[in-house]
């Protein structure tokens, strides 16, 4: 009886200890999540920046099921082929529309979830300072670019999938008694030579999630190498490691390597032949690429250790063909890695493993393969999103090991987390909008030509043309052979009455990139607006003879014929635009307007209906279609168009017009009381809006 009671008490105490540890684990995990959301609060209020527009806010592929099909089957339909990330945005659009705070919250949530998974992984590996390392990774300001920029969902999503795949793999290969217990209990992941196969369900799950991570962002290709690195970290000193454990793990990850290889090759081809990562800016010798890689690793390591002076666009290095003394960058990094490996028996495997992880995970973005972003800078904070963990683990481990007593250790760790958090909070504020972000980018790197051009566009929108021109001149001086630079400056001059100065720039743009059709469109419109109509017609005709798929060219040519009083010829050209691009919204709207002018009403209404369906997020098209329906007395059909317009313009310019037009449609449909509410809403938004004042007075005089 005594033995039974004693045994029962031991089990009870063990259960209490386990529950206490589980509770502590939950608190630690929630603390990571809470901390992450606090430091990224400013990002939630951020708007769109740079290529958020083509990827999200102005991406028609997110609107319907056909777009989802295009995302997966047509790699040319997106700026970069990351279909899993675009599918994630597609789902977000169905749920949230274009309410960007939800997109930012999702980015932050993914980052927080990854921090928790990192902590669990490090704890499983029995690495000292696991929580501190995960916390440093969660709040480090070097990661703001990946979290606060919606387009870098590529990073947050792919890393989350990467870590889930790794955890599934561990579940597949773990032995009895191991598992995700609280640190200090259980066994580490077992990779000892055993004649057993992985648990098939978890292994398949790991492979499947990895297959999703790759098209979220190709940098996920490093996962199989990381699995082998972990095997070496745990059992590299075993006598039969290379003949048994390593060989077995290598066989297990062969499918991972095959998937990674396929996606890697596909990405290189897409970067070169679709994104445009070709030309002088991407031409380096093998030794120059080695120099870039070595210098980038030291750059990321320094930024990680000294987190100041972050830039959205860092200065693009000049890599001297002679390589001296720049060759010291890769030589010193390689020497460090070799030294840490050779000294592993004296100092442990942690330093070597951490640095190998850092260099290995960064490898895909080091410049050995062409990356389109490298035309602006050879380094970027978002390239180092996951690889930084290798060094942060070593920092956390060093704090715990070398700082005594415990109070001092906790103080240093606390100051590190708080200091990084403050920096991250401030850095997140810079992603408020394009103007704020590009202004800071130019402040930190005055020679960044892409920042000069983008800030100039923001200044033009604000009516500050003189300041914009100065930036465009500087940009042209910095990058006189970049197509968007030449074309941007030419357009500015042409639209500001200086066509004679713009003409040679348009001609130069054509020489730089003869197949860039936008150049011909801008040049043709500049010719038309400055009285050179015949020359514009010849330009369009010669270009369309080579590129009949250019719908914008057919539309521009049709507009010329329409202005010349040739409606029949214009209609035929609009039809050619629709034949070239069946989903062309512009061709439909223009052709509908032409039909309305000549009294061909029913075809015009059908074309506007199709345009409104294709461009469901375009308030102007819904308004135009609704107004035509009002003129025809088809009030019930007009109501949904203006309701959609109201939804799209709420809190934006034009909301008062949307409410007024909706009120007019409701009034015409006999729903007078609802019309009164809409007129009043329009006047709340703009009290001096005369049409709404007259409409409200008229509606109030009617029986309610």
Textual characterization of the structure:
Among the domains are: 411 residues, no CATH class; 72 residues, Serine Threonine Protein Phosphatase 5, Tetratricopeptide repeat. The termini are far apart. The relative contact order is 0.06. It is mainly α and 704 residues long.
Which properties best describe this structure?
single chain, 704 residues, mainly alpha, Serine Threonine Protein Phosphatase 5, Tetratricopeptide repeat, 34 helices, 0% strand
Task: Compute the number of helices.
Answer: 34
| Residue share in helix | over 70%
Number of strands: 0
> Which spans have pLDDT < 50 for at least 5 consecutive residues?
175-188, 191-195
Provide a short characterization of the protein structure.
The chain is built from 34 helices and no strands. The chain is mostly helical.
Give the helices and strands, then pairings.
Blueprint: H1 2-39, H2 41-44, H3 52-57, H4 65-73, H5 83-96, H6 100-124, H7 130-139, H8 144-148, H9 153-173, H10 200-213, H11 223-235, H12 241-275, H13 286-305, H14 328-342, H15 344-347, H16 350-362, H17 389-402, H18 406-429, H19 434-444, H20 449-461, H21 465-478, H22 483-495, H23 499-512, H24 517-529, H25 533-546, H26 551-563, H27 567-580, H28 585-597, H29 601-614, H30 619-631, H31 635-649, H32 655-668, H33 672-685, H34 690-700
């Amino acid at each position: 009886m005594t033995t039974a009671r004693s045994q029962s008490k031991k089990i009870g105490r063990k259960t209490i200890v386990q529950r206490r540890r589980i509770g502590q684990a939950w608190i630690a995990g929630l603390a990571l999540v809470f901390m992450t959301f606090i430091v990224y609060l400013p990002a939630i209020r951020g708007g769109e920046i740079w290529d958020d527009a083509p990827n999200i806010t102005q991406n028609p592929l997110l609107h319907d099921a056909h777009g989802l099909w295009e995302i997966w089957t047509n790699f040319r339909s997106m700026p970069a082929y990351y279909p899993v990330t675009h599918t994630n945005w597609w789902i977000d659009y169905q749920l949230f529309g274009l309410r960007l705070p939800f997109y930012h919250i999702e980015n932050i949530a993914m980052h927080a979830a990854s921090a928790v998974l990192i902590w669990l992984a490090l704890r499983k590996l029995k690495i000292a300072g696991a929580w501190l390392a995960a916390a440093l990774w969660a709040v480090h300001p070097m990661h703001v670019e990946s979290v606060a920029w919606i387009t870098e969902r590529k990073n947050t999503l792919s890393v989350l999938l990467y870590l889930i795949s790794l955890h599934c793999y561990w579940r597949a290969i773990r032995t009895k008694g191991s598992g995700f217990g609280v640190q200090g209990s259980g066994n580490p992941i077992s990779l000892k030579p055993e004649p057993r196969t992985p648990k098939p369900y978890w292994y398949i799950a790991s492979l499947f999630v990895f297959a999703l991570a790759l098209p979220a962002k190709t940098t996920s290709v490093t996962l199989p190498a990381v699995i082998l690195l972990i095997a070496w970290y745990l059992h590299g000193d075993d006598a039969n490691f290379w003949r048994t454990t390593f060989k077995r793990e290598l066989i297990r990850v062969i499918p991972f390597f095959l998937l990674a290889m396929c996606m890697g090759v596909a990405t290189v081809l897409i970067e070169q032949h679709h994104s445009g990562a070709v030309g002088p800016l991407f031409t380096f010798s093998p030794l120059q690429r080695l120099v870039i890689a070595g210098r980038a690793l030291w750059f990321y390591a320094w930024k990680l250790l000294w987190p100041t002076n972050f830039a959205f666009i860092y200065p693009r290095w000049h890599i001297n063909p002679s390589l001296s003394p720049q060759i010291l960058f890769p030589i010193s990094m390689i020497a460090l890695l070799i030294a840490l490996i050779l000294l592993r028996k004296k100092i442990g495997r942690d330093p070597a493993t951490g640095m190998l992880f850092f260099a290995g995970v960064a490898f895909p973005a080091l410049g050995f393969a062409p990356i389109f972003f490298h035309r602006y800078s050879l380094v970027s904070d978002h390239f180092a999103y996951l690889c930084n963990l290798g060094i942060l683990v070593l920092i956390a481990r060093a704090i715990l090991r070398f700082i005594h007593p415990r109070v001092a250790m906790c103080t240093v760790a606390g100051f590190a987390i708080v200091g990084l958090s403050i920096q991250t909070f401030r850095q997140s504020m810079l992603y408020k909008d394009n103007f704020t972000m590009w202004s800071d980018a130019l402040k930190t790197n005055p020679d960044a030509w892409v920042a000069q051009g983008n800030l100039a566009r923001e200044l033009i929108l604000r009516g500050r043309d003189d300041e914009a021109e100065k930036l465009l001149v500087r940009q042209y001086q910095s990058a006189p052979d970049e197509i968007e630079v030449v074309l941007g400056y030419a357009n500015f001059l042409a639209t500001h009455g200086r066509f004679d100065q713009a003409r040679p720039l348009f001609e130069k743009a054509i020489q730089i990139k003869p197949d860039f059709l936008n150049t011909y469109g801008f040049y043709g419109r500049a010719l038309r607006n400055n009285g050179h109509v015949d020359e514009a017609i010849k330009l369009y005709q010669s270009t369309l003879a080579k590129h009949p798929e250019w719908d914008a060219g057919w539309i521009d040519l049709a507009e010329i014929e329409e202005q010349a009083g040739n409606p029949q010829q214009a209609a035929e050209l609009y039809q050619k635009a629709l034949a070239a691009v069946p989903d062309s919204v512009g061709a439909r709207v223009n052709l509908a307007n032409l039909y309305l002018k000549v009294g061909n009403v029913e075809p015009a209404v059908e074309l506007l209906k199709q345009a409104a369906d294709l461009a469901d997020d375009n308030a102007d098209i819904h308004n135009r279609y609704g107004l035509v329906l009002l003129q025809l007395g088809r009030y019930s059909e007009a109501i949904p168009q203006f309701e959609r317009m109201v939804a799209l313009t709420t809190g934006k310019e034009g909301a008062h017009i949307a409410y007024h037009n909706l009120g007019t449609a409701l009034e015409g449909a006999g729903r007078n009381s609802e019309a009164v509410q809409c007129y009043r809403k329009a006047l709340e938004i703009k009290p001096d809006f005369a049409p709404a004042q007259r409409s409200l007075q008229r509606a109030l005089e009617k029986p309610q």
